Structure formats: structure tokens, C-alpha cells
Amino acid sequence: KFIVVLILYIDNLSIINSNTSSIVKLKKQLNIFYEITHLNLMTNFLGIEVL
């Protein structure tokens, strides 16, 4: 089993998981109901650097 963490802040949604295939699957499911855009890998969140 994998844990998927969704962080929603204003109009941004961040998906965190160590399994990339589950992220791709979740993004496909979300894209059915919402228009989503993959911007890039997260480098910082609310002023905190993400490694």
C-alpha cells in the first residue's frame, strides 16, 4: 500500500507520493473532473524549501 498526500492551497494542488505510477493514475482521475496542469517539481511551499 502507498500513502498519497494531497495538499490544497488556494488554487494549487500538490500530490506527494514515492510511487510515480500512483501519482500518474491519480492525475488521470482528477483530469476527468477538473482541468489540471502539471507545472513542475515542487521546490518550495509557503516559503519552505522542499528537497
UniProtKB/TrEMBL annotation:
Origin: domain of life = Eukaryota
Protein name, per record? Reverse transcriptase Ty1/copia-type domain-containing protein
This protein's species is Physcomitrium patens
